[in-house]
Amino acid sequence: MPILPRQRDVFPDDLLEDSSPHAFNGHAVGELGWVAFYTLSRREKDLMRKLEAATVPFYAPLVKRRLRSPGGRARLSFVPLFPGYVFSLVDDDQRRAALATNTVARWLPIGDPAGFVSDLRNIKRLIATEQPLTPEALLEPGQPVRVRSGPLQGLEGAVVKRRGGERLVVAVRFLNQGASIELEDVDLERL
Which fold has domain 10-110? Predict the structure, then answer.
């Protein structure tokens, strides 16, 4: 099976920005609600293409993975950071239309949309650094910290010690999952 070129992981591009427009498809943002679509196995990109075609706002973070083929060739692929999940800002009709795509197993409403969007913004900032990310399936309790300098300045998370190094975990609390990046102690300050 050929590896597909990178596709959009956010639609529209300014969906998570503070200055994003306050209307999508003729709806005020207050009329829309964030949901997490849990997709059928390996159908995240298919759902993303269908949502984009229907102009339904979504975000499903994709990260680079370098893979080796059996013949030894290096291949670059973009895979979901949170396998099985596509996050979308929808009204009831758009939610029903997404469920009718035959790519969604179930959907979950987001209880704290402001906190959720803040978490997604932080994840997007981590991905933008193009540093290797490690998905964290289960968050461990740790010291809350803030990044002092660099491209991630102001980002908050928790420190987790893994494999002998210090890692900053940025969580999506709704999923009890996150992503981590390796940082030096001098870049972090306690909260």
Answer: Alpha-Beta Plaits (3.30.70)
**Whole-angstrom Cα distance, residue 83 to residue 71?**
27
Query: Taking the domains of the chain in order of start, what are their residue ranges?
Result: 10-110, 134-190
Question: Which two tokens mark 25?
Answer: 């498809």
The answer to whether domain 134-190 has CATH 3.80.10.10 is no
DSSP tag of 128: H
Give per-residue pLDDT as tens, 78-116.
Answer: 999 999 999 999 999 999 999 999 999 999 999 999 999
Residues 6+ apart with CB under 8 A from 156: 122, 144, 145, 146, 147, 191
pTM above 0.90, yes or no: no
Q: Which long-range contacts (CB under 8 A, 24 or more apart) does 75-84 make?
A: 75/3, 76/3, 77/3, 78/6, 78/7, 78/9, 80/44, 80/45, 81/123, 81/127, 81/133, 81/135, 81/179, 82/135, 82/172, 82/175, 82/177, 83/44, 84/38, 84/39, 84/41, 84/44
pLDDT digits (tens, 9 = 90+) for 118-146: 999 999 999 999 888 877 755 555 778 88
